[in-house]
Amino acid sequence: MPKKSIITGILSYGMSGRVFHAPFMSQKTRFELRAVVERSEKRAQQRYPDIISYDSVDDLLNDEAIELVIVNTPNNTHVEFAKQALNAGKHILVEKPFAPTSKEAQEIFDLSRKVGKYVMVFQNRRWDSDFKLLKQVVERKTVGEPIELHVRFDRYRPEKGPKIFKELPIPASGVLYDLGPHLLDQVIALFGKPKKSIKIVAAHREGSEVDDFATLVLSYAKGLTVFVHASLLVANPLPAFVLHGTKGSFQKVRADVQEDQLQAGMSPKAADYGIEPPGKEGLITLMKPNGDREIHYSEALKGDYNDLFNAVYAQIRLDEPFPVKEEEIRWQLEILEQQAWNG
After folding, report:
1. Which of 124, 41, 111, 122 is CA-nearest to residue 80?
2. End-to-end distance of the chain based on CA atoms, in angstroms?
3. Does a structural domain hold residue 328?
4. Distances from the Cα of 246 to the Cα of 241, 249, 286, angstroms
5. Cβ partners under 8 Å of residue 278, min gap 6
6. How many structural domains are present in the chain?
7. Which helix (H) or strand (E) holds 115?
8. CATH number of the CATH domain containing 28
9. What Å distances lie between residue 215 and 201, 284, 294, CA to CA?
């Protein structure tokens, strides 16, 4: 017997609601998009005329028909709204960063068990095309045992951004909490919890009140070292992934197309959704026994955020564990919240 669709509400129709959530929630197969919170301009209702556009979070949470709430509000409100939604009897899917601290994250998970509802974290970059290729290279030991991995997210944005909550010195602001959860989640998904970590942050943009440069150094068993880096002042970005192993090296530029496609209005059901354009292939360099280099290129796997929402559906309707685990989020936040090294 087919399982019924999950009735869903989205707490904000900013960029993330419009691009990363509504297109998947509105497919009317596994999910039914019932409502969105829009405090002023009713843009969601213009795009989806059958939905309810609530004026406040409280109004949406009081809607008894809604089963799942997507918490995609400013970073510093995630904890408050996650708890409110759980206490209102809703399952929740929370945007990154899940919480400013591991203690607050644990409070949310503990509350979910108390009220009998599921908590899921929207770590969508696990389903990026470029990361999926890196994961395949690691799992197949294509370049041997991993020795050194560099994971980067570089941008050039010298001016302060329009999202004020990211630019003010408040909890979960700055580039480390903005981009760090993506990168750390990818590393943790591959290798688990590191033995040790070092955090370095700095502010270089004129008038910046938060970090716009961040580096994490993670030490793993068997000598693996991982460098996680994010910056808002990189004019010529380096490859997003560089892996050196005992048999060779792998590198790949950041080339997942899903965000751009969704921004342009492409349906997640389109045949070419999530497929990288030619010229962005991963470079694999292997060393032969005679010392010669063997070089070839690998196409990325199809990126597909549909699989994330498949996992949300499976958790709620089939009680199948969500792939982003509670302990992985706790490890991530313990790394992010540690005191920065200042030399």
Report:
1. 111
2. 61
3. no
4. 17, 8, 9
5. none
6. 2
7. helix 102-115
8. 3.40.50.720
9. 6, 25, 32
Separation CA 185–CA 203 (nearest Å): 24
What is the C-alpha radius of gyration for the chain, rounded to an integer number of angstroms? 21
Q: Regarding beta strands 293-298 and 282-287, do their DSSP bridges make them parallel or antiparallel, or are they unpaired? A: antiparallel
Domain check: are 135 and 237 in the same one? yes
Q: List pLDDT tens digits, range 44-80.
A: 988 999 999 999 999 999 999 999 999 999 999 999 9
Helix (H, G, I), strand (E, B) or coil at 31: strand
Beta carbons within 8 Å of 242's beta carbon, 6+ residues apart: 149, 150, 249, 250, 251
338 found inside a domain: no
My answer on whether 30 and 173 are in the same domain is no
Sign of CA dihedral 130, 136, 142, 143: positive
Same domain, 118 and 252: no
At 255, the amino acid letter reads A
Task: Say how many residues make up the chain.
Answer: 343
**CA-based torsion, 173, 88, 60, 309: positive or negative:** positive
pTM, two decimals, is 0.95
Q: Are residues 115 and 159 in the same domain?
A: no
Q: Give kind and range of the element (H or E) at residue 83.
A: helix 78-87
- Residue 138 in any domain: the answer is yes
Rounded Cα distance, 179 and 156, in Å:
14
Is residue 122 a contact partner of residue 73, using CB atoms and an 8 Å limit?
no
Q: Are residues 62 and 148 in the same domain?
A: no
What local confidence, expressed as pLDDT, does residue 39 receive? 84
276's tokens: 């990288």
Q: What are the pLDDT digits (tens) for 121-136? A: 999 999 999 999 999 9
Domain coverage including residue 21: 6-122+307-322
Single-letter residue type at 335: I
154 and 237, same domain (yes or no): yes
Average pLDDT over residues 188-194: 98
Does one domain contain both 158 and 300? yes
Do 275 and 313 lie in a common domain? no
Distance CA 266, CA 193 (A): 37
